[in-house]
């Protein structure tokens, strides 16, 4: 799927007179407003699901042909759990995610302004991650005692940094207040992190422009095909 697609966009793929959608599971990152390029759709019957894979595969969604296949998760964390249970983000963790990407629908707009308010911190000096689940758990432990609202996905360093000595992966952490974020800096900047190296903790600068991609896509007179700038961003 296009990274900007949301639940309401997925719904348009399935004509209401032919298909009954029972559930759509889509993960949206609160720091970028993006989905991971896929989601899961539960239909009312196996017959509808089989027909959708035949009739709707390749259908246009925000300018891109989508693939519709059987809903087999690539890993246990790819799929939302049955109703009444927690989402995959909290599954089998000792410290659950601060932000449930699968269950909340405000990710694309709720987190703007955190950098300006001094509530978003940069955390650098991370090694190449084992998994996002492990990173979330360890970062929550590192900031134990602080009111953490969200932890971003781990971000790869620029190519120019990847072959330099040391660890250069990083992420962002959102706090409930600017005072708490500043206290975290004063307390934890330069301290040894969960992976043995010292972590850099500082105020984040600016915000991701990716949360605005949808508005650009829908701008009057703009073509259905994403611009080269957005394509480059999507590939990053």
Automatic annotation (TrEMBL):
<feature type="compositionally biased region" description="Basic and acidic residues">
    <location>
        <begin position="204"/>
        <end position="216"/>
    </location>
</feature>
<dbReference type="InterPro" id="IPR035979">
    <property type="entry name" value="RBD_domain_sf"/>
</dbReference>
<feature type="domain" description="RRM">
    <location>
        <begin position="1"/>
        <end position="73"/>
    </location>
</feature>
<feature type="domain" description="RRM">
    <location>
        <begin position="119"/>
        <end position="206"/>
    </location>
</feature>
<dbReference type="Pfam" id="PF00076">
    <property type="entry name" value="RRM_1"/>
</dbReference>
<keyword id="KW-0694">RNA-binding</keyword>
<dbReference type="InterPro" id="IPR012677">
    <property type="entry name" value="Nucleotide-bd_a/b_plait_sf"/>
</dbReference>
<dbReference type="InterPro" id="IPR000504">
    <property type="entry name" value="RRM_dom"/>
</dbReference>
<protein>
    <recommendedName>
        <fullName>RRM domain-containing protein</fullName>
    </recommendedName>
</protein>
<feature type="region of interest" description="Disordered">
    <location>
        <begin position="204"/>
        <end position="236"/>
    </location>
</feature>
<feature type="region of interest" description="Disordered">
    <location>
        <begin position="67"/>
        <end position="96"/>
    </location>
</feature>
